[in-house]
């Protein structure tokens, strides 16, 4: 079974697009659309990679990133952040919190695929 | 035969009566009952001190010697009183506003409060009045001598002197008691005034009684009296026009200038309204006094032995006829005439001496500032008492020295001409602003010298003061300086000569020197106050107008302190006095407080002058003070402009800070807005791009391809809608929206909106009340439909009820139409109620419902543009919105 990717995103069409391209490339994609309960999902099984949206219902992507980095079990997990708010200060905040890769929407599928492959490689 | 002792007893009783009258008047005045003491009757009677013993006894003697000429002595004052409106009223007004105490005070005060002038006028008055006092003593003692002789006694000079001394002492006591009792600013003496009014009645009554007795009791009626007059030598004397004119002028001038006349005419006057009554009453009094003068003189000359003193006919005629009672009455009349004159003259002179000679010297001898008010008061009272005693002593000494040589009337005229020298300075002072102190000093000095040389010194008789040689050849052989022929002009009556020369040289010097020299500032101010006294003072008395005064002060203070500060000052003072408003009572405390405040702005001197001008009753009001204040204000204005500038800078800085904060807030909002737009745009674009990449890559089965194409289609629509909304909002917010006004029924608009919202009637039930929807609207129907669509679709999107229901209710209120949209969902949490109309306020967890959260923001903009409103209705069980349409947009259906 392929490497596990956890996609935390609330836009259904984006979830569907990313799930499609990663599944086709052999990744096991778990999705979660709520910020509030995102960490519970993480605790159910630490993924090899987290793809994290910033604007989530309940809890922002930054808070989830902070939690991921705070817990020993997840501190090393690569996190790829996707945001529609592509301002410099968003990137700076994410990097300060220990993001692995910061990407601005809209993205090209190839770009996402390459990044996932690079970060979640065994 | 009456005994001399009876006369003395009656006289003493009369004196005791006068004391009682004076005491009673003072007591009533002390109780504040002064109204009747200030009546025009009392005032008129007090003026009768003009009629002294000279008039009482002397007029008959005058008529016996000079015929009708004695009338001139009455005509002068009559003219002055008839013309009271011109001069007397002005003097009285000035006297009150300036609180004048004497004629010396008038001259000194007018010419810059000059001490020197005060001394000069006082000296002149003493020189002019002392003989007159001696004259009164002489007339009383002569009359006493008549009674003594009548009792079979023979009086030598020592007897006369002794009785004169007793009379002088008695008068001194009376004047000391009633003249120095109170030292109030106005120098009013109610006791003395009432006593002399009583004496005025007594002397008129006595003279009339004697006259009637002489005409009807002695001569045998009017007819025989007339015959006697026609037959007398007096009837043959033709009047000398120059002498008549001269005498009328002199007596008129004396009436104004005599210290005692100024005392009763001006100083004792408490109300100038009494003048109009006195203007006819006093001439009437004089007429009555003169009525029987000629008959008494003629009958006396006819009946009395040759060589009898005609000055004493009024006493000797009744005695000769055995009418002792009438004789005593007549004596009392003469006694009254003499004593009233002496009392008032002594009082007036004592005031002048103490105010212009003693007090200034005493104050100069002290260190300035060491003056305690109680001290000054004691000094003034003492100096006045000493002055009274000294003046009466002087009169007595003059009486002793002169030995009663000259006829009474002659002394009277000499005295008149002497005090008359004040006249040019007085008239000029109150009518001519250009008059100044050097002119007054020059005029009075020269007039005084001319009078002394041409009249006073010669009056003692040839070889008494001036030698025969001086009269004939002039001093040191300077013939143009002969006392009765100045500048070589001979043949003029000595009185006319003295009058014309002294007045001409006096007035000439006064005018010339005034023109050639410059007045000091205080003189200018006083000059304006005197000459324009009517403008500066109102008819009423100062203290009764304290509100008006306070108002004037407020006006002045506002000019100087600025209105808010001045008003605060006055309000605080009024409050401290327990009054509301801005006008406190003008108390001394307040005045000194105000003065201190003002002196901070305009300097102590100016402040003092301003306050003084306002409070002296001389209401320099408002215009003059404003002129002064304006000058000061210009200086003040410069500094207040500086203050204003710094205040302005501060305001600007504050405005800038506020603007900066606002801009920062706006830019934060703008950042948030841009960030929101970015997010709203990028999200559908992300899906579109991603799925179009997948489709381009191929390897997608048909089902998936169709599905992905559908997603791309939906997201593109979403994007388009968003852009439309943004553009729409931009237009609405910029206020450049084009409204397309049309008419339509509300029910139709709602129908269209329900249809266009694409709502599924099976899922969401819409409840309407068509009966209320029959309203014709006149508005932009498209825009209104857009608002309704938004509200209906919001309900469809967000109402989470199991059986969603939307109630649309129409209401008419006060001409406005209200359309409420209420669903049965969960509603909007209270913490979000306030933001539902904000852009992108879509609740986060309802994002999937589509739309960018601009709908309500747009709706609100539309309703504002249509002149209506849209509000959230809390507590409706679900989400409730109310759309209000203005009256103009709605009208009931026909």
TrEMBL record, chain A:
Keyword Phosphoprotein listed: yes
Molecular-function GO term, any one: DNA binding
Gene3D superfamilies the UniProt entry points to: 3.40.50.2300
Any matching Pfam family: Response_reg
RNA-binding as UniProt keyword: no
BP GO annotations: phosphorelay signal transduction system
SMART domains: REC
Residue numbers of 4-aspartylphosphate PTMs: 53
Keywords: DNA-binding, Phosphoprotein, Transcription, Transcription regulation, Two-component regulatory system
InterPro entries noted in UniProt: Bact_response_regulator, CheY-like_superfamily, Sig_transdc_resp-reg_receiver
Span of domain Response regulatory: 4-120
Protein name in the entry: Two-component system response regulator
Origin species: Thalassorhabdomicrobium marinisediminis
Automatic annotation (TrEMBL), chain B:
Gene Ontology CC terms: membrane
Domain of life assignment: Bacteria
Keywords of this entry: Coiled coil, Kinase, Membrane, Phosphoprotein, Transferase, Transmembrane, Transmembrane helix, Two-component regulatory system
InterPro entries: HATPase_C_sf, HATPase_dom, His_kinase_dom, HisK_dim/P_dom, HisK_dim/P_sf, Na/Glc_symporter_sf, Na/solute_symporter, Sensor_HK_Regulatory
EC number of the protein: 2.7.13.3
Transmembrane segments: 6-25, 45-64, 70-88, 117-135, 163-180, 192-219, 244-262, 282-306, 326-350, 385-401, 407-431, 438-456
Subcellular location(s) per record: Membrane
Membrane topology listed for this record: Multi-pass membrane protein
GO molecular function: phosphorelay sensor kinase activity; transmembrane transporter activity
Major location (coarse): membrane
Domain annotation Histidine kinase: ranges: 676-889
SUPFAM superfamilies, per database record: ATPase domain of HSP90 chaperone/DNA topoisomerase II/histidine kinase, Homodimeric domain of signal transducing histidine kinase
Residue stretches in coiled coil: 639-666
Annotated catalysed reactions: ATP + protein L-histidine = ADP + protein N-phospho-L-histidine
Enzyme class: transferase
One Pfam family matching this protein: HisKA
PANTHER family documented for this protein: HISTIDINE KINASE, TWO-COMPONENT HISTIDINE KINASE
Family per similarity comment: Belongs to the sodium:solute symporter (SSF) (TC 2.A.21) family.
Record-given protein name: histidine kinase
């Amino acid at each position: 079974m392929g490497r596990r990717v956890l996609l935390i995103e609330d836009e259904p069409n984006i979830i569907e697009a990313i799930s499609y391209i990663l599944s086709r490339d052999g990744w096991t994609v778990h999705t979660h659309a709520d910020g509030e309960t995102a960490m519970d999902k993480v605790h159910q099984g630490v993924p090899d990679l987290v793809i994290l949206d910033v604007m989530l219902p309940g809890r922002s992507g930054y808070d989830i990133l902070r939690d991921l980095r705070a817990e020993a079990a997840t501190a090393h997990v690569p996190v790829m952040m996707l945001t529609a708010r592509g301002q410099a200060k968003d990137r700076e905040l994410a990097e300060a919190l220990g993001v692995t890769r910061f990407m601005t929407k809209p993205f090209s599928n190839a770009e996402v695929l390459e990044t996932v492959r690079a970060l979640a490689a065994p | 035969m009456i005994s001399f002792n009876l006369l003395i007893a009656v006289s003493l009783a009369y004196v005791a009566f006068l004391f009682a009258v004076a005491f009673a008047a003072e007591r009533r005045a002390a109780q504040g009952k002064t109204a009747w003491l200030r009546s025009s009757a009392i005032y008129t009677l007090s003026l009768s001190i003009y009629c002294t013993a000279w008039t009482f006894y002397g007029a008959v003697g005058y008529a016996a010697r000079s015929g009708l000429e004695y009338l001139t002595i009455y005509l002068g004052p009559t003219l002055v009183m008839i013309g009271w409106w011109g001069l007397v009223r002005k003097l009285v007004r000035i006297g009150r506003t300036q609180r004048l105490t004497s004629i010396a005070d008038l001259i000194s005060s007018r010419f810059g409060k000059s001490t020197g002038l005060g001394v000069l006028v006082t000296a002149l008055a003493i020189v002019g009045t002392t003989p007159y006092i001696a004259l009164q003593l002489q007339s009383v003692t002569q009359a006493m001598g008549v009674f003594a002789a009548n009792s079979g006694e023979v009086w030598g000079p020592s007897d006369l002197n002794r009785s004169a001394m007793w009379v002088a002492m008695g008068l001194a006591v009376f004047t000391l008691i009633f003249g120095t009792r109170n030292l109030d600013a106005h120098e009013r003496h109610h006791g003395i005034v009432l006593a002399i009014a009583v004496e005025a009645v007594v002397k008129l009554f006595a003279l009339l009684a004697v006259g009637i007795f002489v005409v009807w009791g002695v001569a045998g009626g009017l007819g025989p009296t007339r015959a006697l007059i026609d037959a007398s030598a007096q009837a043959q004397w033709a009047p000398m026009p120059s002498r008549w004119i001269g005498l009328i002028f002199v007596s008129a001038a004396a009436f104004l200038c005599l210290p005692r006349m100024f005392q009763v005419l001006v100083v004792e006057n408490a109300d100038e309204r009494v003048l109009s009554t006195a203007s006819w009453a006093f001439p009437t009094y004089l007429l009555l006094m003169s009525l029987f003068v000629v008959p008494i003189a003629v009958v006396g000359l006819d009946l009395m032995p040759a060589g009898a003193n005609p000055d004493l006919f009024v006493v000797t005629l009744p005695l000769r006829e055995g009418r002792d009672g009438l004789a005593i009455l007549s004596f009392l009349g003469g006694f009254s005439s003499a004593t009233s004159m002496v009392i008032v003259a002594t009082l007036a002179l004592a005031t002048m001496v103490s105010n212009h000679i003693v007090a200034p010297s005493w104050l100069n001898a002290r260190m300035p500032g060491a003056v305690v008010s109680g001290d000054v008061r004691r000094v003034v009272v003492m100096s006045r008492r000493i002055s009274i005693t000294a003046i009466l002593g002087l009169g007595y000494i003059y009486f002793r020295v002169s030995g009663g040589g000259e006829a009474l009337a002659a002394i009277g005229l000499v005295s008149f001409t002497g005090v008359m020298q004040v006249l040019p300075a007085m008239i000029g002072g109150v009518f001519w602003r250009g008059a100044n102190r050097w002119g007054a000093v020059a005029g009075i000095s020269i007039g005084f010298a001319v009078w002394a040389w041409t009249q006073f010194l010669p009056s003692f008789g040839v070889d008494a003061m001036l030698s025969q040689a001086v009269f004939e050849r002039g001093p040191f052989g300077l013939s143009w300086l002969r006392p009765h022929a100045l500048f070589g002009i001979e043949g003029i009556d000595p009185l006319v000569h003295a009058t014309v020369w002294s007045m001409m040289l006096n007035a000439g010097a006064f005018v010339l020197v005034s023109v050639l020299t410059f007045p000091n500032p205080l003189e200018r101010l006083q000059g304006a106050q005197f000459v324009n006294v009517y403008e500066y003072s109102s008819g009423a008395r100062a203290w009764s107008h304290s509100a008006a005064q306070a108002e004037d002060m407020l006006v002045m203070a506002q000019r100087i302190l600025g209105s808010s500060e001045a008003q605060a000052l006055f309000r605080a003072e009024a409050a401290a006095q327990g009054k509301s408003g801005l006008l406190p009572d003008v108390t001394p405390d307040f005045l000194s407080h105000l003065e201190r405040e003002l002196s901070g702005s305009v300097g102590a001197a100016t402040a003092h002058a301003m306050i003084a001008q306002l409070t002296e009753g001389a209401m320099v009001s408002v215009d003059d003070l404003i002129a002064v204040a304006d000058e000061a204000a210009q200086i003040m204005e410069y500094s207040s402009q500086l203050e204003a500038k710094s205040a302005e800078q501060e305001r600007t800085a504050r405005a800038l800070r506020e603007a900066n904060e606002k801009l920062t807030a706006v830019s934060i909002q703008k950042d948030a807005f841009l960030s929101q737009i970015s997010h709203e745009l990028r999200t559908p674009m992300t899906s579109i791009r991603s799925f179009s990449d997948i489709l381009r890559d191929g390897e997608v089965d048909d089902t998936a391809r169709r599905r992905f194409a559908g997603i791309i289609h939906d997201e593109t629509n979403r994007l388009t809608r968003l852009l439309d909304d943004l553009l729409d909002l931009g237009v609405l917010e910029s206020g450049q929206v084009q409204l397309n006004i049309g008419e339509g029924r509300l029910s139709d608009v709602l129908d269209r909106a329900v249809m266009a919202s694409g709502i599924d009637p099976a899922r969401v039930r819409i409840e309407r009340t068509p009966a209320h929807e029959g309203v014709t609207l006149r508005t932009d129907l498209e825009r209104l439909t857009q608002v309704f669509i938004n509200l209906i679709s919001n309900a469809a999107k967000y109402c989470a009820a199991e059986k969603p229901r939307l109630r649309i209710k129409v209401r008419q209120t006060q001409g406005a139409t209200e359309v409420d949209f209420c669903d049965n969902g969960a509603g909007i949490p209270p913490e979000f109620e306030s933001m539902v109309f904000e852009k992108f306020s879509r609740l986060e967890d309802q994002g999937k419902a589509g739309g960018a959260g601009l709908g309500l923001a747009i709706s609100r903009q539309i309703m504002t543009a249509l002149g209506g409103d849209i509000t959230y209705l809390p507590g409706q069980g679900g989400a409730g919105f109310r759309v209000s349409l203005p009256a103009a947009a709605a009208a009931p259906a026909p």
